[in-house]
Amino acid sequence: MVDIQTVSIAIASASVVVGIVYYAFQLRHQSKVREMDAIVRMNPSFNLSLNDWQQAAFKVANLQFKDYDDFVKKYGSLATETPIVMAIHTIGNYYESIGYLLKRRLVDINYVWDCYGEALIKLWEILKPVVEGFRKQYNMPTAWRTVEYLYNEMKKREQKLQSKT
Question: Which residue from 25, 48, 95, 164 has the least number of CB within 10 angstroms?
Answer without folding.
Answer: 164
